[in-house]
Amino acid sequence: MSIESKLTELGITLPEAPAPAANYVPWVISGNLLFVSGQISALKGRLGDDLAVEQGAEAARGCGLSLLAQARAALGSLDRVARVVKLGGFVNSTATFTDQPEVINGCSNLMVEVFGDKGRHARAAVSAPSLPRGVAVEIEAIFEIA
């Protein structure tokens, strides 16, 4: 089954690939790797302060949808993705918040849902005292290209 068919089956509609917010490009292809710049959540706030883990996970899923939109824009089709190699997740959170992995799972779960075993990846899930524009989550990705 094609990835586009899988998205339809899952009821997932990807957003338009967001334009860069500053002086960088949304993605770079080097060899057989696609590096997608950090995609930020629409949700603003801080985990451990005014946001719950579930809200953070939903924000991370939104970042994942933007990552997929960028990958499709770069490759023309998500069927060219051979593997999700790595996600780097940043969570706007308090010094005492320790559930960053559960937040970034919102994106990780999406990748496995869409790509199956090819969606299983290496990952970082770290705390940040603030993120651009006050958003709750930012996630970057590396994809292997078939």
From TrEMBL:
Gene3D superfamilies membership: RutC-like
Entry-linked SUPFAM superfamilies: YjgF-like
CDD domains: YjgF_YER057c_UK114_like_1 (cd02199)
Coiled coil regions in record: none
Superkingdom, taxonomy of origin: Bacteria
Pfam families: YjgF_endoribonc
InterPro entries per UniProt: Endoribo_LPSP/chorism_mut-like, RutC-like_sf
Residue ranges of domain Endoribonuclease L-PSP/chorismate mutase-like in the record: 4-133
Transmembrane segments: none
Signal peptide: none
Protein name: RidA family protein
UniProt organism field: Paracoccus yeei
